[in-house]
Amino acid sequence: MNQQVVAMTIEEWFTTHRRKLPWRTRRSAWRSLVSEFMLQQTQVSRVVEKFEPFMERFPDPTSLAAADEQEVLIHWQGLGYYRRARNLKRAAEAIVEQFGGRTPLDVEPLMTLPGIGRYTAGAIASIAGKRRVPIVDANVQRVLARLCEDDDEQASKEALDRAWQRAEQLVEACDKPELLNEGMMELGALVCTPGTPACGRCPLASRCASRRSGRQNSIPPPKTTKPRVEVHHHALVIRNRGRLLVEQRGDEGIWAGLWQVPTIESKRKLAPSQVRQRSGLALRELRRAGSFTHVLSHRQIHVHVFEGDLASGRKTGVTRGQWHAGSKLDQLPASNAFRRVIELA
Ligand code: ADE
């Protein structure tokens, strides 16, 4: 493959075919860093909705570093995977402390920040900093694998190493690293998609080894995915004079630090009597309010919603959590699953 021709073809195609996305209309290192954090595991369409409101509230690392974590989580709502929001805040703190509040634009300092690996550092350094450094994400890896007819499992270390080498060769040969790198991502997102790629619209179709041999639909080979672990969450909606009992999740695991109603988690679905017993609460009554299944990348959570009334008197069993007015629940950082629990009840 002629690296220079391939690189220039992608750069030209990107210039005329790129989507108008909020982080592309005005560039800065900070905007690039925030958008990359948001895009790590969330669809572009969802990030498009959330990006500008977040930037308005946290226009620079200093404002994010100084903010209360709860407020950051509120602004992150809807994006999921809240660990990223926490890492982003820690990255902002490190930028303030170690780099005088200016987001670095080189791979090495970027990689010292929490939540930033080789891909994210390369994306910020090349796209915002115009540095001549490679990037490989899932889109880029697929484009390169098809182009070179590399039919290895994408998850293999060897396949990933080869993708980084190819990306490096291309970025060395290109004219503008920022156009090449974002262009490869865009080509993967819009044309060279998983499953059946749209080769008819691809600027590289005539140079693609997989297309030449007709194997573009089977490269890369399908991922061998582990089945999702199934768990059951029994959510207790307990009201008292217009207020609702809520508690904050611990620092580890899913939805770390977010708020929820008291929840009993188990491998199996529990009978109401077991839920009542494990809750430790003195419940006068426990009614089923409905159930739904919440699917995450590695887990399938069956959420069973109950409504309960506390026994009157002092021994309610409530030892933790807080009573919150129903009308103020919007102000608590919480998962989408929690919002559904409240809707159901
Ligand atoms: N995913 C990660 N970075 C991106 C970008 N800059 N544009 C579109 N999708 C992306």
Topology of helices and strands:
Layout: H1 3-17, H2 22-25, H3 29-39, H4 44-57, H5 61-66, H6 69-76, H7 83-99, H8 107-110, H9 118-128, H10 138-147, H11 157-173, H12 177-190, H13 209-212, E1 229-240, E2 243-248, E3 259-260, E4 263-266, H14 272-279, E5 283-295, E6 299-310, E7 322-325, H15 336-344
Parallel strand pairs: 1-6
Antiparallel strand pairs: 1-2, 1-4, 2-3, 2-7, 5-6
This protein binds adenine (ADE).
Biggest β-sheet, characterized? 7 strands, mixed
Q: What small molecules does the structure contain? A: adenine
- The SS-based structural class is alpha+beta
Q: What name does the CATH topology of the largest domain carry?
A: Endonuclease III, domain 1
Termini separation comes to 60 Å
CATH class of the largest domain: Mainly Alpha
> What proportion of the residues form beta strands (DSSP E)?
15-25%
Number of strands: 7
Mean pLDDT: 94
3D structure, described in words:
The chain has 345 residues and is an alpha+beta fold. It has two domains: 3-213, Orthogonal Bundle (Endonuclease III, domain 1); 229-344, Alpha-Beta Complex (Nucleoside Triphosphate Pyrophosphohydrolase), CATH 3.90.79.10. It has 15 helices and seven strands. Strand 5 and strand 6 form a beta hairpin. The longest helix is centred in the first third of the chain and has 17 residues, at 83-99. It binds adenine (ADE).
